[in-house]
Write a structure and sequence with these properties.
With 260 residues, the protein is mostly beta strands. 10% of the residues lie in helices and 40% in strands. The protein contains three helices and 17 strands. The longest helix is centred in the N-terminal third of the chain and has 15 residues, at 15-29. The protein is elongated, with a radius of gyration of 19 Å. Residues 1-35 form the signal peptide.
C-alpha cells in the first residue's frame, strides 16, 4: 500500500488512517535497518558532536539555551483535544534575536510541528512540520542559522536536513539545490530515469527487482509539491538520472515511496 500524505493540521482522521499513521511510525523507527550501515546511522544524527541543551536540541554553547520556567503557553485552536503545545525554552538565535521554541504535539495523527516565536514581540517566525516530536534533531548555531534534521514526510523513513536562517528579525528557510538522501531502494516496477527533473528524455531504465542508490531529493517548492518529487538516482551500472514521482500519472516505481 502506498503511503498516504499527511492531511491538513487539525483534521481528525478515521480510525483506519490512524492505524496507518501507527504503521508509518513503526516504519520510521526501522529506518536505520533500511539504510543498513553505521555510516547511514551517523548521518541520521549529524549533530551528535554538538552540546545537547535539552532532548533533541543541540546548541553551539549551553549558555545559548534557557529552559522555559514561565506559565504554560496557550494553544490557539482546538485546545486540549488534537494539539498539545509545550514551550521548551528560549534561544539566542542570532544577532539581536532571541526566540522561543514551542513543540506542538499532534495527539491524533501526524504531523506534529515545532514553532519559533520572537521572544520580544511574540510574533510567529516559523512553523516546521515533523513526523513526530522525538523524530526531529535541532542544531542552533547561535550565528543566525539553525538546522533541522528529520524524517522526510514524503519518503518512507529517510531523513534530510533543513536550514533556517535569520534575515533581520525574520526567519527564512534556505532552499537547497539537492537534499542528500544516500540510501538504496528496490525497484518495484520498470522505471525510467530522465536527464533532468522536468525532462522526458530517458537516459536509463531500471528493471523491476533491481536495486538503485538514491543520491538526493530535489526539494519541492511548496507543501502542494510533495506528491511531485524528483529523486537523483544511480543505477547498478553507475549511470545517473532523475526519477520523478507523480502519483497522478502512476509513476511510483521505487520502494522508497512505500512503507509496506
Amino acid at each position: 500500500m502506498r503511503r498516504q500524505r499527511p492531511g491538513p493540521l487539525g483534521r481528525r482522521l478515521p480510525p483506519v488512517f490512524q492505524a496507518l499513521a501507527l504503521a508509518l511510525a513503526l516504519c520510521a523507527a526501522a529506518a536505520p535497518a533500511l539504510a543498513g550501515s553505521a555510516g547511514d546511522n551517523a548521518a541520521a544524527r549529524p549533530f551528535a558532536d554538538k552540546p545537547l541543551a535539552a532532548p533533541h536540541i543541540h546548541v553551539d554553547s549551553p549558555a545559548q539555551f534557557l529552559k522555559w520556567s514561565g506559565k504554560p503557553v496557550q494553544q490557539d485552536d482546538d485546545p486540549g483535544r488534537v494539539f498539545k503545545k509545550t514551550r521548551l525554552g528560549t534561544l539566542a538565535f542570532g544577532p539581536n534575536l532571541r526566540v522561543h521554541l514551542d513543540a506542538i504535539q499532534n495527539t491524533v495523527h501526524f504531523p506534529s510541528s515545532y514553532q519559533l516565536v520572537d521572544a520580544a514581540s511574540g510574533a510567529l517566525l516559523g512553523s516546521y512540520e515533523v513526523f513526530d516530536l522525538d523524530d526531529a534533531e535541532w542544531y542552533f548555531a547561535g550565528n543566525g542559522a539553525a538546522y533541522l534534521n528529520q524524517t522526510h514526510l514524503s519518503l518512507c523513513g529517510q531523513r534530510s536536513t533543513r536550514k533556517i536562517a535569520q534575515r533581520g528579525k525574520a526567519l527564512v528557510e534556505v532552499a537547497q539545490p539537492l537534499s542528500y538522501i544516500g540510501v538504496d531502494s528496490t525497484v518495484e516496477q520498470a522505471t525510467a530515469l530522465y536527464d533532468s527533473p522536468t525532462s522526458r528524455t530517458v537516459v536509463a531504465t531500471v528493471a523491476a527487482g533491481s536495486t538503485v542508490h538514491v543520491i538526493g531529493l530535489l526539494p519541492g517548492k511548496s507543501a502542494q509539491a510533495r506528491d511531485k518529487l524528483a529523486l537523483l538516482v544511480k543505477t547498478p551500472f553507475g549511470l545517473t538520472g532523475w526519477h520523478r514521482l507523480d502519483y497522478g500519472k502512476g509513476e511510483a516505481g521505487l520502494a522508497i515511496y512505500q512503507c509496506n
